[in-house]
Amino acid sequence: MLSRENVVREALSALEAQRAANMMEEKRRRAEAAQKSPAVARLLERREQVFFSGMRGAFASPAKAKEVSQNMQQQIAQINAQLRAELMGCGLPETYLQPVYQCPLCRDTGYVGEPVHEQCVCLKRAVMNRLYQSEGLQGLERENFAAFREEIFPDTPIEGRKTSQRTFIRKCREFCEEYADSFAADAGQGVLLCGRSGLGKTFLMNCIAQRVLERGFSVVVISAYKLIETMRRYQFGDEGLEQVQDLLSCDLLCIDDLGSEPMLRGVTVSALYHIINERRNAGKAVVVTTNCDSDLLYEKYDDRIGARLTDPSRMKVIPFVGVDVRRFAAQKG
Ligand SMILES: [Zn+2]
């Protein structure tokens, strides 16, 4: 994994570039508005004059600085009111000449809070997504809704049913896309994709992760194997605290292939319970793929885990059915 310090540094320099881009955009907007309306141009010029003469005045007579600055602020407020009216008059939003930024919380500085300086959520998300994209998400640029091909699923009825596997997977895909599009950080609604391998579960989970990520949320995709490894290292060697915090705090946690991890005594079940329960209490969602059906989840882990992963008020359980598409594709040649 990349070092966290480097990733934070990268994210901060991306914010610096963003601030430079914001300033360019502000400049462009001023030019555009001034070109549309000579009155706007005059008001902008006037505002600048008031500002600089106010500054000079405050410097020249420090005793009167307070009075000068109040006077200046009053004049600027008046000019701003006229500016807003002018902007609307020429068909631009009244906020058009206000400072531009992507994140209203930190104004693209990455930090919030006075006097305690804290990382803004936007910085935390950027760091987390960079960290986990470096390994967990490699599949995502290939495995997304746009790349989803239903024609690799047989168009013949699923054994014992009327619907074909292709129709079935199309419905699953529709559900997953809608889920990802309406995902909200603290809604706590998750998905359990279960069934044998080769039915498209991991692909659809990656599609969800990719879409939620694109929408600006923090997403961690991790195999159950790796998750247990991380928790084990933390539990026995007090390293990996930050990774464990990421698993608990990211907006969406996607656990792949639950059931394939080693069943370590005193680790696997309690670690899994800890993650799932903490996230549930915090209203945070998990998406899980597993080869186990719900009965097996109860049996293999314990009732508390089984109940949380299949709780209909919080989890949509999708049992995948059909034949292994990798074999189907091979037969088709
Ligand atoms: Zn921010």
Ligands bound, unique: zinc ion
Bulk shape: elongated
Mean pLDDT: 88
Classified in CATH, the superfamily of the largest domain is P-loop containing nucleotide triphosphate hydrolases
Query: Biggest sheet, open or closed, and with what strands and sense?
Result: 5 strands, parallel
Q: What is the CATH C-level name of the largest domain?
A: Alpha Beta
CATH architecture of the largest domain: 3-Layer(aba) Sandwich
CA-atom Rg in angstroms: 27 Å
Query: Would you count the extended β strands for me?
Result: 7
Give the helix tally: 12
> Any idea how many domains?
2
SSE order: HHHEEHHEHEHHEHEHHEH
**Poorly predicted spans:** none
Task: State the helical fraction.
Answer: 55-70%
Distance between the termini: 38 Å
Structural notes for this entry:
The protein is of the alpha/beta class. It has two domains: 4-112, no CATH class; 135-332, Rossmann fold, CATH 3.40.50. Helix content is 56%, strand content 10%. The protein contains twelve helices and seven strands. It has helices at residues 4-36, 38-60, 65-89, 121-133, 165-182, 201-214, 224-237, 241-249, 268-281, 294-300, 303-310, 325-332; strands spanning 111-112, 118-119, 190-194, 219-223, 252-258, 285-290, 315-319. A five-stranded parallel sheet has the order 4-5-6-3-7, with helices on both faces. A two-stranded antiparallel ribbon has the order 1-2. It is elongated, with a radius of gyration of 27 Å. 28% of the residues are buried.
